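Practice record 12: protein with iron/sulfur cluster.
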Amino acid sequence: MILILFFGSMMGEKITENFKLDKILRVDLTSGSVKSEPLERGAKELIGGKGVAAFYMLKEVKPEIDPLSPENRLIFSWGPLTGLAPTTSRLVVSTKSPLTGTFLDSYSGGMFPAKLRFGLPGHVAIIFEGKAEEMCYLSVDHGNAELVPAPELRGKSVFELYQKFGDGAEIAGIGVGGEKMVRYATISSDRGTHHAGRGGAGAVMGSKNLKCVVVKSDPPALPKEIRDLAAAYVKKLRENPGTQWAIQIGTAGTTFSSQSAGLLPSLGWRMGRFFGYDSIGPEKVKESVKERKTCYFCPLACGYALKLKGKFEIETRKGPEYETIAMLGPNCGIDDLSAISKLDSLCGEYGIDTIEVGNIIGWLMRCNEEGIKIFDIKFGDVEKCIQVIEAIAHRDGRLGNTLADGLKKAASVFGGEDFIAECKGMGYPGYDPRGSVAMALAYATSDRGACHKRSWAVGPTTFWGDAPYDYEKAPRFVKEDHDNNSALWCLAICDFASPVYLEDLGSEWLRALGYNFTREQLKSLGAKVWSMVREFNVRHGFDRKDDYLPKIMTRPLEGEGPARGKSIDPEKFNQMLDKYYELQGWTKDGKPKSSFGL
Ligand code: SF4
């Protein structure tokens, strides 16, 4: 039975509001204990977000720990700016990934992260450990936290949870995919419209019998100094040339860039230009916008909800965003935005990652076309896509159960390894490296498996740069992104606001909130956190052999566009890796030369 405790020794008390975050909330799901702890000194130096999560993961999650066992940790963290500065309502979800076995940090926005920070004043993270006997949720209500048994929540989508908890509550939780421990299940918030999407944190939550976190809180009163600073940043964000794309049409605009550069994954990574582009491109999105969507306190409002009439008549609550469009659309040969939205909604309802699903379905289709008999599904077959998603979410039958373990596992069981695009078991996102070679390095060296968020080198090298096939410049771009993004993620700042926040990496805001960091110190902090996570991964068995190029990238890209006929040269790829490790100060095997001693 789950005990219900109110902050241990702080029962009934409200935590005094302050802007300095120096506590964590530790939730032991096995015993039911919910306690506030001081943030350890070593973690304090890492501020919050990814840094604090990296500290506790390195210290507490040992190599032998199975990601889906009670011993794994699931950490929700945020930063001192969260909810106070514009574009900072971001939740960092960290754990040992059940998909890749690496450190995993996944990010989501919306209202939930700010509400959570306001609901737990003075705290920078929640660490979940253990496993509850039956399904439960964590209630955070104006400074009080308790675990509540709730077996009746099993089977519900995050959207349905809102109907139970009513107005005024924000929720982050799992759907059926997380309960069934699909290894790429998401943790979703804001009525199921924002997702900590990649790497399977939702499966870890499901393995702990934790359905959701429900938060009720109010924003604190802010001193004039903070309000003035916020107003100045709103202006900067609105006026910066680097954020105009977000204001205009959000991530949907990327479809144009990828199609133009010839690196839009199409037909199971066969081509880099999509024949049905006009039906799924930014113009189609623009004409279908029902309303724009935003996170808490963001002047960019990059999101959108669509009203579509095509194969399906559908109104989306948010999205689909670029990655989903690319992977469930062109990569699966689907040229109907309403059909892509239908598949996206289904993935959202079950809480599974659309990038993995798009990779898996595109791979099944490609295998079918190449004569590898796994499942009879042709490019563009939306009805069969729905069947596959249902099977994955419920782990139905041998096919659904195997696909729920991920692309790499599925290929090892069924064959078709030559046609998977992945690294460390995580499917490639929507930028084919054959049209932007730096992305091959970015995917290989990303700490959580193939990811475009740690380094989006496709932007400066290809979309607005002139070095798409330059192997020599790539390592520097990638290393720079890794350091900068790690610093911004210790503060949990939205990536899309980086044109503004990269100027000082958030140091002005930190000073206003009582922290003392220069830009240079923050940059070093980013590099330090990146190496801490690398140490975690090395301890868990990863090194150079795992920073690989999938075989499919050595085949020439087919179809039209500037990257037609291009492939990644394995020898030059290895030289990029050498250079990248050298820049990081790691050994030739990709191992940090010193340990953080945790
Ligand atoms: S830019 Fe978009 S994702 Fe980022 S905080 Fe604003 S609305 Fe959210």
